[in-house]
From TrEMBL, chain A:
<feature type="region of interest" description="Disordered">
    <location>
        <begin position="536"/>
        <end position="558"/>
    </location>
</feature>
<feature type="compositionally biased region" description="Low complexity">
    <location>
        <begin position="543"/>
        <end position="556"/>
    </location>
</feature>
<dbReference type="InterPro" id="IPR036028">
    <property type="entry name" value="SH3-like_dom_sf"/>
</dbReference>
<feature type="compositionally biased region" description="Basic and acidic residues">
    <location>
        <begin position="449"/>
        <end position="467"/>
    </location>
</feature>
<feature type="domain" description="SH3">
    <location>
        <begin position="1144"/>
        <end position="1206"/>
    </location>
</feature>
<protein>
    <recommendedName>
        <fullName>SH3 domain-containing protein</fullName>
    </recommendedName>
</protein>
<keyword id="KW-0728">SH3 domain</keyword>
<feature type="region of interest" description="Disordered">
    <location>
        <begin position="1036"/>
        <end position="1062"/>
    </location>
</feature>
<feature type="region of interest" description="Disordered">
    <location>
        <begin position="1076"/>
        <end position="1150"/>
    </location>
</feature>
Automatic annotation (TrEMBL), chain B:
<keyword id="KW-0963">Cytoplasm</keyword>
<dbReference type="GO" id="GO:0006891">
    <property type="term" value="P:intra-Golgi vesicle-mediated transport"/>
</dbReference>
<dbReference type="InterPro" id="IPR039652">
    <property type="entry name" value="Coatomer_zeta"/>
</dbReference>
<dbReference type="InterPro" id="IPR022775">
    <property type="entry name" value="AP_mu_sigma_su"/>
</dbReference>
<keyword id="KW-0931">ER-Golgi transport</keyword>
<keyword id="KW-0472">Membrane</keyword>
<dbReference type="InterPro" id="IPR011012">
    <property type="entry name" value="Longin-like_dom_sf"/>
</dbReference>
<dbReference type="GO" id="GO:0000139">
    <property type="term" value="C:Golgi membrane"/>
</dbReference>
<dbReference type="GO" id="GO:0006890">
    <property type="term" value="P:retrograde vesicle-mediated transport, Golgi to endoplasmic reticulum"/>
</dbReference>
């Protein structure tokens, strides 16, 4: 039997003798039939009780269980409990049995045997469930008061804490395990004897508060446990919070004011007198609790107590106190600095922390020192800042990597996820310039003003041996040495962390370059070179007791002669590169990220390129990691736009090597950002880098040669071949969309009048003229032309569309050139000319030669009409000139209407700036302007402006002239918009890719990772079924249970209704979770894609509505390839109207009956309540109440039949 | 923040899980992700050999101990090195409770105690006690420092 059918409870209660250890499956069959038949149900950690049809039977069962347990508990006679016999039957113990046992044993808690059973059988098994029934609380409290056994009591505190922490929604409790139902909802059903959390929590709190305030010395262990359990109460409850603060401050009032120095040693208390040990224990408990309470910045008492904690003897207490202080310091650095200033003096408690055993305490110290040393509020106290900075620098010598790395990151200005370029740049400056002066060194302290205070103090015990040769050290050298030695470690976490630190170093360095912070990396650090010997001894001494690999640090000693920042960096990067050989792919990814960040724009990137190329050939890389690296390229570009071309080259490797694993949207966004960022000079190169993708030979299946060559496409499996194809489509689209931008060639800026092109009807001349005028555009044109012939069907379609876009946007002779080409393409006549280029992919090319005829004809029609209208206009102008007569308003109107009509048609194919674009040619500009001025037509909205369309504008704006919009528009901006490249839009246009990039840049994102494979491999040992089917029901109503479990397989069953609902609302169903993610995966993403091109391409492309069109930017893959003039408009209208209509169709209703929520997402109803109905799903309404109900909930699911719609 | 501590058996069944600050709907992803990570990397791993992974700004350190795989997930101050400390405390406590690297049977036999130990090690998403003697005292309701 599959082990997934076995619950944790089965495992635990299984008789060891009958179950071979390690194989968990065999206990399943021995369970009764109801258990085995129900395990096939989908796992649901929500533990939602069955849907409504089951409700009645549940209620009766529950009544029964409750009355049973209560009557048994009330019996109070020392019963022999029946938990053991069940075990002998090898049947899993059900929750109800455990609960009953607790009630019974609590009543008999004075007996040794009961205590033993509790500790060894009942409590451990109860731990398997993810929440605890509040109805157990009375028995637990009884045990708490009457039982003396410490082990029992420990469990009692454990479970009381869990009842307190349970927010009432079993799915959210921190403890995993077998899902349990919503106890409160159950208690509500059972009107008489039900116990809810609301009933028991005050009792528990009272009891625990009493114990936590009990100052009896003998009681103090329990006092500690009670205080800890209390902190599990939800922090949203102000009453409990106030109580907790009162208790904690009460304890600290008694024990915090101690002048005693902390004793050395791990826990301070060893060998101390009883009083001080108890005091230390209480200090620990109080600070632990304080750490879990919300910060209270601005409260001097809070700060005072936290600062006192630094001097406590318990190391955990010291850690918490430092953590609290360092968090407070981010909010109010001045008061914190004032409060702890004294502790920082030599011999002060903060200096002791440097030698404290607790690693996290020193980490907190580093963060605290960083915060204060960088605080603006302390600008007038440079002495204080310098003191804290000095402590921070000392932490660079810490034997623990965790502490040292934290100190490095702090120095580098990487403190939290907020990336501020100035801070990072200053960080790099600090690292390269600052010197570590150790206060103990006599040579240094002489220079200091406070000589006496330093000399008068005894040196730190642990540093005695190194006392003799302390000299100032440049930070950069210390850091580099330390990192180099860390890279020689065998521990993967250390390697990963070291690579991460190097990456952060690269970020700070890039920020420094970007902001022009003057750091000469070639300058010698020779001023301090005489100190290097002592440095090495220092390092070796301080780290002698950490890993053996550290010894290797002497290897780098050879370079110490004349160090420069550059040489130190070079030697570090050498070590970093070798780490790429690590077998852990995550470490490798981090190393590559570090290399990308450390890559300087002026260095050759060939080495990096080849490293990445060979790495990508490893099939072990998961796609999330590759995308992470792609996003790193993004971030790198943001930091140093100069590197656009380099980064594009690297991105190309991803496109060719692992097309199937990367997110094409993100890659495209990178292309786009780089293209814009490359600046006028680099635009051409950037475009080239993108289009190299098009020049790649088609993938050759099965060919393993050239795996490491970056010019070879590795797409041997169908999936990656498809992905590569999509990537090529994306590249073609990108080219068509952006070629004009890259070439700075726009029809509306064209100096060449349209007429001149007509002079060059000879094709050869035309091409020659075009390429001499604008080689970038000509090159792009050639590539697209080739794609229109030689690509796959999908690529050809997009190439034709791209060519049309270019034709519309470019001036002559390009437009004419494309026109001729498209014309030939639609007839298929020219194909023979290109046949030598044509690489057959085995497709039938169709009767028309290219098969593109039907697609191209509407495009040609538009171009035809434009040319025809231009001819007509020229004719008209000539007529008017010849007759020497003015244009009448009627004629102008006709001309303007033609202009508008053509604009509308053109806009169907691609975006053009309405205000500037002249489909009738530059010659028409003057006449159209006259008409617009006369009729107050805004250039950007044209006739589509309802005011103009209905003639109202003539009446309203008669006298005043509206400012012409074109004047207010910056030319570059318009052009960038034309290519969808406007700077603002860049970061808002491509929703999914953009979210990912922004999230990445912000360093945020803790959401769960995706696993690519569809089959979920983990098997929750819990949640094989509901509690209902599994335990509570199995004894009393087996026949119903059978019906339920068989029903789960049929679509009509209540079980499937339940699962569909739970999956719909953040439930546990695998695919739907993907669609509910904000970044949009899976199904929702594809539907977005399907509608986006339609919506964007055919929306009104006026400047004002530019936002809407940018949305479609990342969607070059037009899902539908029918005539774009036909169906898309309607579709886009629909999709745009979708949202508002949903919100308008609000419905209201009234609750017909009382309804009790059976799960987290359901809502309690009282008959007669007014409701607002949001939507319906599978027989349920999602409704909102006007005011919160008894349980405080406002919205949730209710059965449709319980609500009357008004 | 210490986001999660999970114990799996070698077949990928969850034995113990403690989440903190992870939305319920993301837990399924984490479980799946971690099991896949383990099945990809833990074959033939030595006891207590540390493995590392990361996802966005979240770090994962995992290890195998006897028949049990242990995963620790954290972010911010709980980076890969801090998690290595956490997992060290956890493994030493489990060894302490079980007396040796546990078989699955042994682990389940000591289930209650292990839960109590975890309760002393991780408290509301923050690492609490790191010394195993101290933890041993605390799960017996003795004061952290003995009188």
């Amino acid at each position: 039997m599959d082990s997934s059918g076995t619950t944790l409870m089965d495992l635990i209660t299984a008789d060891p003798s009958s179950v071979p250890s390690g194989t968990s499956g065999t206990s399943g069959p021995s369970a009764n039939t109801s258990t085995t038949s129900s395990v096939a149900a989908p796992p649901s950690t929500l533990g939602k009780p069955a849907a409504q049809t089951d409700r009645k039977s549940k209620r009766s069962t529950l009544m029964q269980i409750h009355s049973e347990t209560i009557s048994v508990a009330k019996a109070l006679n020392p019963v022999k409990t029946n938990i053991m016999p069940q075990k002998q039957k090898k049947k899993p113990v059900s929750y109800s049995q455990l609960a009953r046992s607790i009630h019974e044993l609590a009543a008999a808690s004075d007996q040794k045997s009961s205590q033993k059973q509790l500790v060894h059988h009942v409590f451990p098994k109860l731990a398997v469930y993810n929440s605890v029934d509040p109805s157990l609380a009375p028995s637990l409290l009884m045990l708490n008061q009457q039982c003396e056994d410490r082990s029992v009591l420990r469990y009692v505190y454990y479970y009381l804490a869990r009842i307190l922490s349970d927010s009432g929604s079993q799915g959210l409790s921190p403890g995993g395990g077998i899902p349990t139902p919503n106890w409160d909802a159950l208690a509500d059903i059972d009107a008489i004897g039900g116990v809810t959390r609301a009933d028991v929590v005050p009792r528990i709190i009272n009891q625990l508060t009493k114990e936590a305030s009990n100052a009896d010395v003998e009681f103090h262990a329990r006092r500690l446990a009670a205080l800890k359990a209390l902190t599990f109460a939800p922090s949203s409850n102000n009453e409990i919070l106030a109580k907790l603060f009162e208790i904690v401050f009460g304890i600290l009032d008694k024990v915090a004011d101690t002048k005693q120095k902390r004793k050395k040693g791990m826990f301070g208390g060893k060998g101390g007198d009883k009083e001080s040990i108890i005091r230390s224990n209480l200090q620990y408990a109080a600070l632990s609790a304080l750490r879990r309470l919300p910060l209270d910045p601005g409260n001097p008492a809070f700060l005072h107590r936290a600062v006192q904690g630094v001097s406590f003897s318990d190391s955990v207490a010291v850690r918490y106190s430092l953590e609290i202080i360092s968090e407070l310091a981010t909010k109010d650095p001045y008061s914190v600095a004032m409060a702890i200033g004294k502790l920082l003096l030599p011999g002060g408690a903060l200096q002791d922390v440097l030698h404290l055993h607790d690693v996290l305490a020193r980490v907190a110290l580093a963060r605290l020192c960083h915060t204060i040393s960088r605080a603006r509020a302390l600008d007038e106290r440079p002495d204080i800042k310098a003191q804290f900075a000095s402590v921070l620098y000392q932490l660079l010598l810490d034997p623990s990597e965790r502490v040292c790395f934290e100190a490095i990151l702090c120095v580098l200005g990487k403190f939290d996820n907020t990336e501020r370029a100035e801070e990072r740049a200053a960080g790099w400056y600090r690292l390269t310039r600052e010197i570590l002066k150790l206060p103990e060194a006599p040579s240094v302290s002489l220079k200091e003003t406070s000589v006496e205070s330093k000399d008068s103090l005894p040196p730190k015990p642990s540093k005695d041996k190194s006392q003799k040769s302390r000299r100032p050290q440049p930070l950069i050298k210390l850091v580099m040495r330390r990192l180099e030695s860390s890279f020689r470690s065998f521990s993967r976490p250390v390697l990963h962390a070291a690579a991460r630190v190097v990456q952060e170093m690269g970020k700070s360095r890039a920020a420094a370059f970007a902001l022009g912070v003057d750091i000469d990396e070639g300058a010698h650090l020779s001023v301090y070179s005489e100190a290097t010997d002592s440095l090495d001894t220092d390092l070796n001494e301080t780290s002698s007791h950490s890993e053996a690999s550290r010894k290797a640090s002497s290897v780098s000693n050879g370079t110490t002669g004349k160090d420069t920042v550059a040489s130190l960096l070079a030697s570090l990067m050498e070590v970093v590169r070798t780490t790429v050989a690590c077998e852990c792919v995550y470490v490798r990814a981090m190393v590559i990220k570090a290399l990308i960040w450390m890559q300087s724009p002026y260095e050759s990137f060939e080495e990096l390129e080849s490293i990445i190329a060979s790495e990508l050939s490893d099939p072990a890389w998961p796609s999330t990691l590759l995308n992470d690296i792609l996003l790193t390229l993004h971030a790198r570009f943001k930091a140093t736009p100069d590197m656009a071309v380099t980064l594009l080259e690297i991105a190309r490797i991803f496109a060719t090597k692992v097309p199937g694993k990367i997110d094409a949207d993100v890659l495209q966004l990178l292309w786009k950002t780089c293209l814009v960022g490359a600046g006028p000079g680099g635009k051409h190169t950037a475009l080239e880098a993108v289009t190299i993708v098009l020049d790649l030979p088609p993938p050759q299946p099965g060919s393993m040669s050239g795996l490491t060559s970056i010019d070879m496409v590795s797409a041997s499996d169908p999936k990656s071949a498809l992905a590569l194809q999509r990537l090529v489509q994306a590249a073609v689209w990108f080219l068509g969309e952006n070629a004009n931008y890259a070439a700075s060639e726009y029809a509306w800026e064209s100096a060449t009048p349209p007429g001149t092109a007509l002079m060059m009807l000879d094709a050869d001349k035309m091409v020659a003229a075009a390429s001499s005028r604008n080689p970038t555009l000509a090159g792009a044109l050639t590539r697209l032309q080739r794609c229109a012939f030689s690509g796959s069907w999908e690529v050809r379609i997009i190439a034709a569309q791209a060519l049309t876009t270019m034709a519309i946007r470019s001036g002559e002779p390009f437009r004419l050139q494309i026109y001729e080409f498209l014309h030939a393409l639609s007839l298929g006549g020219v194909q023979s000319q290109f046949s030598d280029m044509h690489l057959s992919n085995g497709e039938d090319q169709g009767a028309s030669g290219t098969g593109l005829g039907s697609l191209i004809s509407p495009m040609l029609k538009v171009l035809d009409e434009m040319y025809k209208a231009q001819d007509d206009l020229i004719k008209e102008i000539r007529n008017h000139d010849n007759a020497k007569k003015e244009w009448t308003d009627e004629e102008l109107k006709k001309l303007y209407e033609t202009h508008e009509k053509l604009l509308d048609q053109v806009s169907l194919f691609c975006y053009v700036p309405r205000a500037k674009y002249l489909p009738l040619g530059p010659i028409s500009a003057k006449l159209i302007d006259i008409y617009r001025t006369r009729h107050n037509i805004s250039a950007s909205t044209g006739l589509n402006d309802p005011a103009v369309a209905t003639g109202i504008s003539d009446l309203v704006y008669e006298s005043k002239r509206t400012p012409a919009e074109p004047d207010t528009l910056d030319d570059d901006l318009v052009n960038a918009w034309a290519a969808n490249l406007g700077d603002d839009s860049l970061w808002s246009n491509n929703a999914t890719a953009m979210n990912r990039v922004n999230e990445f840049l912000a360093g945020a994102g803790t959401d769960a990772p995706d696993v690519e494979e569809e089959n979920i491999t983990y098997r929750p040992s819990v949640g094989y079924d509901d509690m209902w089917a599994k335990t509570l029901l199995e004894a009393s109503e087996p026949e119903e249970d059978d019906a339920r479990s068989s029903g789960t397989s049929s679509p009509e069953s209540t079980g499937s209704v339940e699962t569909s609902i739970s999956s719909h609302f953040g439930g546990m169903s695998y695919p739907s979770l993907f669609s509910s993610r904000p970044s949009g995966y899976g199904s929702s993403k594809t539907s977005e894609r399907a509608s986006a091109p339609g919506a964007s391409r055919f929306s009104d492309p006026s400047v004002g509505s530019s936002a809407s069109m940018f949305e479609g930017l990342g969607s070059p893959r037009y899902e539908s390839f029918e005539n774009p003039l036909a169906g898309h408009g309607a579709q886009s209208l629909e999709s745009q109207d979708d949202e508002p209509s949903r919100s308008e169709n609000r419905q209201f209703g009234k609750a017909l009956y009382d309804f009790t929520a059976g799960g987290d997402d359901e809502l309690n109803l009282t008959a007669g309540e007014e409701l607002e109905i949001d939507y319906e799903v599978d027989g349920w309404f999602y409704v909102k109440k006007k005011r919160p109900g008894r349980d405080g909930k406002m919205a949730g699911l209710v059965p449709v039949l319980y609500v009357s719609q008004s | 923040m210490l986001l999660a501590v999970l114990f799996f058996n070698l077949e990928g069944n969850i034995l113990v899980e403690r989440f903190h600050g992870v939305p319920a709907e993301e837990r399924l992803h984490w479980r799946t992700f971690l099991v896949k990570l383990g099945s990809d990397n833990l074959k033939g791993a030595k006891n207590e050999e540390l493995f590392v992974a990361s996802h966005k700004s979240v770090y994962i350190v995992y290890s195998v101990l006897g028949d049990v795989c242990i995963y620790v997930v954290g972010k911010d101050e709980y980076d890969e090195l801090a998690l290595a400390e956490v997992i060290f405390v956890i493994t030493s406590c489990v060894k302490d409770v079980c007396g040796k690297p546990p078989t699955e049977r042994l682990f389940l036999d000591k289930y209650g105690k292990i839960c109590l130990c975890l309760d002393e090690i991780v408290w509301k998403g923050i690492l609490e006690n790191t010394d195993k003697d101290r933890i041993r005292r605390l799960i017996r309701l003795k004061p952290p420092a003995d009188i």
